Amino acid sequence: MEIRPTTDEDFDVFVDTLHAAFGRFPETPAEGGGVWWAALEMDRSLLAVTADGRPVGTAAAHSFELTLPGEILVPAAGVTAVGVLPSHRRRGVLSAMMRHQFTQLRAQGEFLSVLLASEALIYGRFGYGPATYEQRLTVPRHQAALALPRARGTVDDASATGSVELLRRAECGEILEEVYDRYRRAQPGALSRPHRWWTLGAGQPPVSPAPRYVAVHRDADGVPDGYASYSISEPAILTVDETIATDDAVSTALARFVLGHDLVTQVVFKHFPPGHPLRWQLADFRAVRVSEDTDWLWVRLLDVPRALTARGWFSDGELVLDVDDPFLGEHGRYLLTVRDGKADCVPTDREPDLSLDVRDLGSVYLGGTTPSALVRAGHIRAHHADAATLADVLFRAERTPHCLHWF
Which of 154, 214, 255, 369 would staple 363 via disulfide (CB 3.0–4.6 Å)? Predict the structure, then answer.
């Protein structure tokens, strides 16, 4: 078996092999637009082929920017389109592609890889850890009243200074792209959406051109600063694909708009981060039903010192991390020193504060998973009583990391 890079000439073979791996057939493009695989970068894709040239596995990577804590933008390889034909599974094909891909990414100078895991059991063994999470919130229309603000200066006061305009998806592509880009630059855990994704309609709504209504929020000067993309299906369920808001005031205004829609029985908000304030804003706290509470973005550190010094930090301190990377057969002990929002990370022979797998370091990296939770779960070993508490303080982010982009 050979793992080889692909070219544009391999596109159709790659797509056919990928679909066969999942037992599916390529669907017909949505009306007026493309398909999700149109955004694949063939110069960053791999094919596993047998000795007689038959393709049996695929793997690809998108070129994204990831927003780290501290509003720092770094390159991140978005791994996708990973599949092995059923006839060749459990023969080491997947491991060979992952190892080849890591070698390729490191050679290109990349230190972070991210993905959305089709199955939770697969990617931990390759060093990926779940780092952002999401929920689906459902609100019955008859319980959708928002409580009045209790004090001046609340987000509800602020929302009165803007307006909401209803548009169709086909009318506001440039607005969606611009507002999303402003949002993702300030949101830890968010990924960029390259312009070509919007042009190709490669993704899920609202990136895809599927028919949607879009509630666009504008500030007092008429500048768009948020949107909610939604559709209504039988039996009278309004589903919000995506809510983008540059602040809590905009989020509240958009929630009020969709919750006030007539002739629907319930409103479903997809892809909300844990701890979203909506349920606290409703007059009936019990009105919200939480479902599909799950992981989203998984993170893999390919260069521990570079990754730790890249992100922003919000507390000073020192921590010695003993990091094991079983898949790549690597091990390192690092002294992490944080001062004034910046970190230094160097090899050390000091006694460790924490011993952990690289996948667990990926989980805590963005601040969405506390080290103490993984200590209690038995994933991370704390070598003294204060180690987990110190790590919690150091690894926190300025806000809950969240990723909306599907790839």
Answer: 369
